[in-house]
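chain below, 317 aa
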Amino acid sequence: MRSRTALLAVIFVVSSLVLPAAAHAGGIPFFGPIIPPQSVTGVPGSDTCAAGWGMLMIVVNNLISFLLTIAIVFVAPLMIAWSGFLFVVNPVNASGKEQAKKVLTNTVVGIVIALAGWLIVDAIMAVLYNPKAESGVTKLDVWSSLITSGDLSKTLCIPLKASLAPAAPPTVAVVPPTGLVNVTAFGCKNALSCQTSAAVNAKLDQMKNNLGAKASQYQITETGVNTTVTHASGANNLDMSCYGSCSPTQVKDAIAAWPGSVKYETASQSDYNAMIAAGVPTGNILGPAWFTGTFNNGVCSTGTGHCITASHMSLNP
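prediction:
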């Protein structure tokens, strides 16, 4: 029994190591990708174009290599191990031993036929594509490589007429309404609400110059165009925020840099208290007592109170 167990172990180890090594010469193991990406072919757009004859041959060869890999690397070792197991558990059972021999024989013969068939086709195709090949002189490459040799850009993709070629993605540009210009000094949180008059845009440029390197900390939340909610200041609205919550220092810097008046608006009592404690002038802050209303479909609708969506600074030109 021990000898049979040892035989099972030897068969499994040998099959797991020898079969993959023997198949390596044929490009196996191969685990993909079946359709080669642009990084493999070296032809720009080969993974998105209409596949040509060369691409078809590469895909067929990769598919065959992948199936052989599954058969040799995974199926064959398991079947050989199974036959060895049957030998071990049926030491005196003639039918069991016969079944084990049949499984082992069929597995080995199947792998040999699969590899031999691939190699025979490869040899024939290589010779057909090299009719002047000489023994010991000419190097015969894999048949799929021979078919796709030369200029791959002419075989991997089917040339398309200009009318059928993929069009470049359209570019979308925001055209400001008549009399307005796009804000240039700061980034905009809402790209559709990033237009103002030339005079206000000039003041924003001045504010940016006054802030210097600190200007990158600010963005325009909304102007008076294409707003997400109705603003009390209407078309003259100009809201600014920070990338993240504004600190008291950022608010004071904005007040000093803007050539007009600035109101920091917040519905948070703790935020309001922190601004006052840090020295932001009370005349430049509107706190929770001011914002007692709520929005209904973008319109402030509760009593006479004002509404706010998030803390920000209102710039008054």
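The first strand starts at residue 181 and ends at 182. The radius of gyration is 38 Å.
thats it, cya
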